[in-house]
Amino acid sequence: MGDNTKQNTEAAVDNGGSSSELKTALSRTIGLVTLVILSLSSMLGSGLFILPAFAQEVAGDGMWFAFVLAASVVLTGAFSKSELASAMPESGGVYIYMERTYGSLMGTISGLGLFASFMLKSAFALIGFAAYLEVVTTAMDIEVNPKSIALVLLTFIVIINITGVKKIKKVQTPIVATAVIFLLFLCVMALLSGEADLSRPITNIDYLSPEMGTAAALVFVAYSGAIKVGAIGGEVMDPERNIPRGMFASLLVATGLYAGVAYVMVSVLEPGWHMDGTHAIENPIYVFAEHVAGSTVGVIAALLAIVTMASMALAGVLSASRFLFAMARDNLLPSKLEDLNPTYETPHWPIIITGVLMATAILTIDVHAIAELASGFNIMVFVAINASVVVMRHAGPHHDWNPPYKSPLYPLPQIYGAGTGLLLLWLIGANAFIGASGAIGLGLFVWLAYGRQHVLEEARVTPFAAFKARFSNATPEVSERFYTAFRAADIGRKNHLTLSEFRAAITQGLGMDLTPMEVRTYFHNADENGDGVVDIDEFLAIMQSNEEE
Predict the structure, then answer these.
(1) Within this chain, do residues 15 and 36 fall inside the same structural domain, yes or no?
(2) Which of 57, 221, 472, 531 lies in disulfide reach of 375, CB 3.0 to 4.6 Å?
(3) Do 38 and 157 share a structural domain?
């Protein structure tokens, strides 16, 4: 199967299949510890290696508190997401919740907004890669253009994602763990050096100033992985208990690391450490390591940052592209975006689109603006998550809502999260509103131009049972014709079909007069585990059985 099967369960949502089918398709093998590790591996990266200097530029020596303030807003989203995920543990995916709460228009807007957020965060990681690469090449007396190297790396990342390298996340986890251990080691060295002034980060700090709020909004993107555990809800053991626990545990650890490292950096570094002329530096950990342990350790820190940022971008392209893939499966985007590459069985068009947009962002958008846009999209998502719980709880007697986990102290966390989120959007400035307007405008355009009629058309297509009837009780000659048509369409010779191969088998091989939307809907019904391919033998066996759908 393609590597997307267990990377992002948003792609497993099937319009035609039932939730019970999906629950049995994905085995629940992920425990609490693994869940926390997966969440942390998607969070700890740019938040540690890039954002401290940006936050210092805005909030001054109290910038460590900006991470705590941002985490308090994320916490409310974790409460709300836990309630939503426990009610729909097989689905995952914030945009799915938005669609079920507000309809396909909001699903389109939130899906594209989430895609933009992950895409921009990945672009942000490559900018950090370029900054730390410059440190290493300077130390080695080599002249290169770091941004050009970052674009070359992006090209390789796109190719790697298309060719379907397995277990990308498992490669990322030990890399991030090594980086965290290294940073903790630097912090211990700083505290034992005798240089640290632990009173500086808390002296003359206005914790509730607009500048602190702006810094909190800026670093918000660092927590984008906190609620990501819901995306693999269908694979989590005892999801009603472990999903909330996983979110809160990973959020607590990440907040402690962000705020702790930032606090030590401020206490040991000289005033103005975060500036390079008129703008904030993009390699603060190198400056920290060089000051604490010398230039050699500083270069080692830069090398570690390069590997970490590259792995974050690699996994980020994977995650971002799956939003487009999942939306196409829900008929909100053209079917081309859900079709898998016949050789590698990965959604190559979403991956290519993600890579092109990342390159555009790196070349045309200021790094500070990228951080603001990515954070702005994430804040909007958290506001929407909190609002969804309120809507679900008050949907009326015709909508049953009794999830195993319910947010404590309702509705206080939801009010705080939504209200504070809107305030942070206002504080972050014009870029947040530009991003919000762009996401809403693009989502509305896509829904009006494509999603609306295709979502409605699904209700008018021939039922899957009628399609299955064409295969039932077939003679041996007809059965052989089915097998011949399906195997002829199997370009990759892997005994399963992608959407385009399935379409060729049905319409060309068997000559069935079906519309593209009918074929697409039947493919979704047959693809029970949502991995984008249909097993030939299993499909034909089910189709020719006498069991009722």
Answers:
(1) yes
(2) 221
(3) yes
Residues 302 and 241 occupy one common structural domain: yes
CA distances, 168 to each of 31, 160, 319, 352, 493 (Å):
19, 10, 11, 17, 25
Band the pLDDT of 460: cuts 50, 70, 90.
very low
CATH code of the domain covering residue 510: 1.10.238.10
Per-residue pLDDT of 246-265, as tens digits, reads 888 888 989 999 999 999 99
The tokens describing 163, both together, are 């060719």
Q: Are 458 and 517 in contact (CB under 8 A)?
A: yes
More confident residue, 514 or 261: 261
Closest CA to 385 of 228, 190, 265, 524: 228
pLDDT of residue 59: 93
Separation of alpha carbons 376 and 373, rounded Å: 5
Q: Locate 511 and state its tokens.
A: 């000559």
Peptide bond into 201 cis (omega under 30): no
pLDDT at 348 over 50: yes
- HEC sequence for 496-541: EECHHHHHHHHHHHCCCCCCHHHHHHHHHHHCCCCCCCEEHHHHHH
**pLDDT score, position 268:** 95
Containing domain of residue 497, as a range?
A: 464-543
CATH number of domain containing 21: 1.20.1740.10
- Residue 236 dihedral angles phi and psi, to the nearest 5°: -90, 130
Tell me if 155 sits within 8 A of 355, measured CB to CB: yes
Specify the higher pLDDT residue, 331 or 14.
331
Output the CA–CA distances (angstroms, integers) from residue 127 to 134, 281, 359, 546, in the order listed: 11, 11, 10, 57
pLDDT tens digits, 66-100: 999 999 999 998 888 888 877 765 544 676 777 77
- Are the C-beta atoms of residues 439 and 377 closer than 8 Å to each other? yes
User: Is the pLDDT reported for residue 15 higher than 70?
Assistant: no
Q: Which ranges constitute the DSSP H helices of 229-366?
A: 239-268, 284-293, 295-329, 348-364
DSSP assignment of 80-121: HHHHHHHHSTTT--HHHHHHHHH-HHHHHHHHHHHHHHHHHH
Rounded to two decimals, what is the model's pTM? Answer: 0.78
Asked whether residue 196 falls in the same domain as residue 103, the answer is: yes
Neighbour-count burial of 475, counting CB atoms closer than 10 A to its CB (0-12 exposed, 13-18 middle, 19+ buried): exposed
